[in-house]
């Protein structure tokens, strides 16, 4: 508590002084008095909270109470420090729990079976959302924000580390980059052993490993997929620690020096996880053009949730970019094979055994995001199925070995993937009234307003304040809406029969030749969008000539429907696959280089970006390069790098694209060390995006949704005309070829 109080803003110094005085006085009391005081204070606080949550208020009193609380939240939100966040959480919970108490006690007296079906369906979805909200507050209220622990021992005493790079069907060009970067990790010679774990049993991979001196490990079966691959490697290696990188995750040179200090300080530490950082856009970022301007789907987890888990000693293993202590891993039977999310299940087993897990929020590796929406959905289906399997077979609420905080963190991670059905309920709930006049709230429209709005506003304001750098407002609804339909069936089946389903590898790399609209994947969103548009039209018609009481109810449902249209139309926009003509994404970087030309002249310039196969150059004034001109590039450092042979691919407006050619393996290794393996390559952009501004986020989502509706209308019109003319080869503004045919 003292450490927490030290983080209070300077303006509250008097509060800290008062608390210190009281604590000093109480510490001199007899033990039984102190225990009695704790119990008494707890009971008084519980009664006070219970009174606030259940106090019956009429319309005007509830409106006044809500207005005062929300005004206080707006003021508190401007304050810095964790005390302000905790106060916002408290006010949010008061508003939400008051709403739910009123909802359960005053609004469920339904008059017909139709009202009951829609009404109870909605209230169950709301209970789920409230439970996830409360658990989320517990997870993120006070992130640990762990710092690196410096290695105190001399390098000769540092432990041996086996680097595992499991691969199955990835291209050699992708895996090669990871292997070369793993070899470049700064660690004493002889204490770093890099192993390629090839479950594809490919001869070219074996030859490559022999050429660069990397151990090649394979097996005669693919049992248990990635988990089985890793466990097989455990049998034939003996390093004290294991660092694991997926076949597309490129580690920096500083990876082990940043992570290993905590293992040497804490002998009970079994796992340390670092963020999954992606240097290419995922389908949301690519198709909606939000790369680096809106936090992606995974940033909330790695930027905030994992840090909060760390506070409760419940950091998850995420399958890559992590270090595990071999002895502790073997004590729980190796990597878990019972579910398809072997990583999270392994961490759960380690925590149950009493071992510590940790999280360090410093990107020390970067990988490729899924390129297409279909691949992204397939990956999330596997995660959802695996979490449901763990929930069913090894539920964190039960069994020994976990404290309360760990149980909540693991339970919330699993419950997160049950959002599909509640999300679909929220996207269709107002249609029950607009289509069928179903009274899902047995209360006046104004009473609904004064209870619902505080719950929504407080939760939105509080989550925005907590998550501002890692999740912008309204985007969570977009992410869930895109995936809800597709993960619902696998999750429900996994709850019924956990053995169903198998591990699937998410393909990475490749190109998308041109823009196209994925009609097959977008079908559920189009149906939802159409239903809400019809509901909006019906509601507007009903609004004409309605009395004041009915008009208020209609306006509430119409506002809800408009919001759903915005969210669903943005989901439709994600199905518009943007072209990707480059095999490898470029990484922005300003590196000083010297360029030598064939005539012996040279000039210095700065890179704009780089990839494994080339760089973009910002040319000095008056310098022009011709296409296919032969060059040699030297990255300026101390000492200077080798000369890398290259040729110009394009040159215009003081910008040139240069492609490397004929690099030896030694030159490829050096190039990786100077670019992808730089310690600052990924950390500089981590968590530095603009803070969330809810109204700006709403405008942005609405703009994307409106644009999607217009494009959908145009594409439908053009494709319909083509069908009527019986000319299937007629081009449309958005090619509707199926994703599986393009990728």
UniProtKB/TrEMBL annotation:
Membrane-related topology note: Multi-pass membrane protein
Q: Pfam families from the entry?
A: Cellulose_synt (PF03552), Glycos_transf_2 (PF00535), PilZ (PF07238)
Protein name (Swiss-Prot/TrEMBL):
Cellulose synthase catalytic subunit [UDP-forming]
Which cofactor(s) are needed, names only? Answer: Mg(2+)
Localization per Swiss-Prot or TrEMBL = Cell inner membrane
What's a Gene Ontology MF term here?
cellulose synthase (UDP-forming) activity
Checking CDD domains in the record gives: CESA_CelA_like
Q: Which residues belong to any copy of the Glycosyltransferase 2-like domain?
A: 163-329
Annotated PilZ domain ranges read 580-676
What family does the database annotate?
Belongs to the glycosyltransferase 2 family.
**Main site of residence?**
membrane
E.C. numbers? 2.4.1.12
User: What sections of the protein cross the membrane?
Assistant: 36-53, 59-76, 83-102, 117-138, 417-436, 442-461, 482-501, 521-541, 553-575
Keyword line? c-di-GMP, Cell inner membrane, Cell membrane, Cellulose biosynthesis, Glycosyltransferase, Membrane, Transferase, Transmembrane, Transmembrane helix
InterPro entries annotated for this entry? Cell_synth_A, Cellulose_synth, Glyco_trans_2-like, Glycosyltr_2/OpgH_subfam, Nucleotide-diphossugar_trans, PilZ_domain
**Superkingdom field:** Bacteria
Q: Reaction(s) catalyzed by this protein? A: [(1->4)-beta-D-glucosyl](n) + UDP-alpha-D-glucose = [(1->4)-beta-D-glucosyl](n+1) + UDP + H(+)
Pathway(s): Glycan metabolism; bacterial cellulose biosynthesis
Q: What does the UniProt record say this protein does?
A: Catalytic subunit of cellulose synthase. It polymerizes uridine 5'-diphosphate glucose to cellulose.
């Amino acid at each position: 508590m003292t450490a927490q109080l030290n983080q209070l803003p300077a303006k509250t110094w008097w509060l800290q002084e008062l608390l210190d005085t009281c604590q000093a006085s109480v510490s001199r009391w007899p033990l039984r008095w102190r225990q009695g005081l704790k119990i008494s204070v707890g009971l008084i606080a519980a009664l006070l909270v219970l009174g606030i949550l259940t106090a019956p208020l009429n319309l005007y009193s509830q409106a006044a109470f809500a207005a005062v609380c929300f005004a206080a939240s707006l003021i508190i939100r401007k304050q810095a420090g964790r005390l302000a966040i905790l106060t916002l959480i408290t006010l949010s919970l008061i508003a939400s729990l008051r709403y739910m108490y009123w909802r359960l006690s005053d609004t469920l007296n339904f008059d017909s079976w139709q009202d009951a079906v829609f009404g109870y369906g909605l209230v169950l979805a709301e209970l789920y959302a409230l439970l996830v909200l409360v658990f989320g507050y517990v997870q993120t209220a006070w992130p640990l924000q762990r710092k690196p622990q410096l290695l105190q021992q001399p390098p000769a005493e540092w432990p041996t580390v086996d680097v595992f790079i499991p691969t199955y069907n990835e291209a050699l060009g992708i895996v090669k980059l990871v292997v070369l970067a793993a070899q470049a990790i700064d660690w004493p010679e002889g204490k770093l052993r890099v192993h390629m774990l090839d479950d594809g049993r490919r001869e070219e991979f074996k030859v490559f490993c022999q050429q660069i001196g990397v151990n090649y490990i394979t097996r005669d079966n693919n049992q248990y997929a990635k988990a089985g691959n890793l466990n097989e490697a455990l049998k034939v290696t003996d390093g004290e620690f294991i660092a694991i990188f997926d076949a597309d995750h490129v580690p920096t040179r500083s990876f082990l020096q940043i992570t290993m200090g905590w293992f040497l300080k804490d002998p009970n530490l079994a796992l340390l996880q670092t963020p999954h950082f992606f240097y290419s856009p995922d389908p949301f970022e690519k198709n909606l053009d939000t790369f680096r301007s809106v936090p992606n789907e995974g940033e909330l987890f790695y930027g905030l949730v994992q840090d909060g888990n760390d506070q409760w000693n419940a950091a998850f293993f995420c399958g890559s970019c992590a270090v595990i202590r071999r002895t502790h891993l073997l004590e729980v039977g190796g990597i878990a094979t019972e579910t398809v999310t072997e990583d999270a299940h392994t961490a759960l087993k380690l925590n149950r055994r009493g071992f510590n897990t940790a999280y360090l929020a410093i990107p020390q590796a970067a990988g490729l995001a899924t390129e297409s929406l279909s691949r992204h959905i397939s990956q999330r289906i596997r995660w959802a199925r695996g979490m449901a399997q763990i929930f069913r077979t090894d539920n964190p609420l039960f069994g020994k070995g976990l404290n309360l905080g760990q149980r909540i963190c693991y339970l919330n991670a699993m419950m997160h993937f049950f959002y599909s059905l509640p999300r679909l309920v929220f996207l269709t709930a107002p249609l029950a009234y607009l289509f069928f006049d179903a009274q899902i709230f047995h209360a006046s429209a104004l009473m609904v307003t004064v209870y619902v709005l505080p719950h929504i506003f407080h939760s939105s304001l509080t989550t925005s304040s907590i998550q501002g750098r890692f999740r912008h407002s309204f985007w969570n609804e977009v992410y869930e809406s895109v995936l809800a339909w597709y993960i619902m069936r696998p999750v429900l089946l996994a709850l019924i029969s956990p053995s169903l389903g198998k591990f699937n590898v998410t393909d990475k790399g490749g190109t998308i030749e041109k823009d196209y609209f994925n009609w097959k994947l977008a079908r559920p969103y189009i149906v939802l969008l159409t239903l809400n548009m019809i509901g909006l039209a019906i509601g507007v018609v009903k609004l004409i000539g309605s009395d004041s009481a009915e008009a208020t109810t209609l306006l509430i449902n119409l506002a809800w429907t408009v919001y759903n249209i915005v969210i669903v139309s943005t989901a439709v926009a994600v199905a518009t696959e943007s072209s990707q003509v480059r095999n490898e994404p470029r990484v922005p970087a300003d590196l000083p280089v010297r360029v030598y030309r064939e005539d012996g002249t040279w000039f210095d310039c700065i890179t704009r970006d780089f990839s494994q196969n080339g760089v973009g150059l910002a040319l000095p004034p008056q310098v022009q390069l011709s296409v296919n001109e032969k060059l040699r590039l030297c990255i300026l450092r101390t000492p200077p790098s080798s000369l890398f042979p290259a040729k110009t691919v394009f040159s215009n407006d003081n910008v040139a694209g240069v492609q490397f050619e004929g690099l030896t393996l030694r030159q490829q290794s050096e190039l990786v060390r100077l670019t992808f393996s730089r310690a600052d390559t990924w950390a500089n952009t981590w968590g530095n995006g603009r803070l969330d501004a809810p109204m700006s986020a709403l405008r942005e989502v609405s703009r994307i949704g409106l644009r999607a509706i217009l494009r959908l209308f145009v594409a439908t019109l053009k494709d319909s005309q083509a069908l009527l003319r019986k000319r299937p080869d007629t081009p449309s503004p958005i090619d509707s070829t199926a994703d599986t045919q393009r990728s």
